[in-house]
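agent> Task received from the user: take the single chain below, predict its 3D structure, and emit structure tokens. No templates, no multimer pairing.
agent> Plan: (1) validate residues, (2) run structure prediction, (3) serialize to tokens, (4) report one or two observations.
agent> Step 1 OK, no nonstandard residues flagged.
tool_call: predict_structure(input=
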Amino acid sequence: MIDEWNQGPRDMARRSVLAGGLVAAMAATLPLVAAVTGEDDWAPARAILARIRPPRFPRRDFDIRRHGADPANQAKTSAAIRDAIAACAKAGGGRVVIPAGLWPTGGIRLLSRVELHLEDGATLRFSTDPANYLPMVLTRFEGVECMNYAPLIYAHEAHDIAITGKGRLEGQADWTNWWNWISRKDEVISSGRRAAQKRLADMAAKDAPVADRIMGPGAYLRPSFIQPYNCRNVLIDGPTITGSPMWVIHPVLCSNVTVRDVVIQSLGPNSDGCDPESCRDVLIEGCDFTTGDDCIAIKSGRNRDGRRVAMPSENIVVQQCRMRDGHGGVSLGSEASGGIRNVFVRDCRMGGSDLLRALRLKTNSYRGGYIENILFRDVVVDSVKEGVLEISLLYGEGPGGPNPPRRVGGVTMRNVRSSGSLYALDIQGDASLKVDDVTIIDCAFDNVRKGNQLVRAEVEARGVTINGRAWNGLGQA
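)
tool_result: status=success, residues=477
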């Protein structure tokens, strides 16, 4: 029997993610995890966690120095990483080791059975030259499939892949490179990006073949940092990640994903921390987020293209995370056209001077899909600038569209303690659809400046206080 590495600092009893199925198998619809009240409301999450199995790898090391890596030469280091990954995969798997030191590189593509391991003190510093992320690859940009620049670390249709270790991944994005693609200061970039976004949206609306949706040079659509695409058995454990061009960890159409003990520090535009999109059986655990957008944003494709692919994000557990800065602690949407369900959040700490919301659901009448069966419990919210719970059916394109969601509801918030916010609950339904079945149990919202804002919402509250005063009973607005 081949010896294997023991991944991560936590014992196996706490590990998870289903060792099951290529994305093709994901097309079969799972039954909804039944909502359970009382002390058993975490039982569905335990069932998900019981399936979670991070990948394990043969005990073989491929040190990039043996393949010609040179800390003074980006081209040599990039080639050495590529060669080490190829050799590791050919041998049947193992670890590609990034030793202590600073290593400049271009894009990296992971292959099946390969663990990219950053030793303590190791830094991979990624080029900011977009040419280093060509040729273009199949990806999603804001929920729409296209051909675009490769993410900084990319995998396609791979299985059993990992990024581990306490080293650093530095994207180097700032307002002199990637982030300035979203700026309006350069009209060439700004007009190119706007034209590309419209062209992509128009092509998706007409179901144009994805291979024809060519973006890349001149389109100015930024890539994600880490993106496994249509992969299974994925582990990201331990690194610190800084300076992402856009979304940081962005698994798409993946099953059996574990993101653990990652520190994310990226305050750029749209620098979401972790965005599982159309993924099944995901654990996000023990991570620390300081982001320029949502800390965690669960998605499933945008508008017609999301409905065409028709893969929900489902069976997702978030626990023991710290959300310091961003637009939302845990957000669902707004790209929710494939549906989002069975999301369980527990034992997290959120807030501070710069977090806007704790739990956020956002969609609109163009998305379709659904968002349902969400549990948010045992969370300490230091303070947020807006609502502790915010649900909006008017996000982005807003009302009046042809595809309102089938449902947004089935949300339970239990044992949440908030120290300050503009609203406790800020829920905005749409004229064509109420937000239904929102239950708030044993929660205390202190230093709330404006109480609640409820429009077309059904809310039941039990054992709830706002600024020390009881707020109980079934309410509709």
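agent> Step 4: summary for the user.
The first strand starts at residue 61 and ends at 63.
agent> Done.
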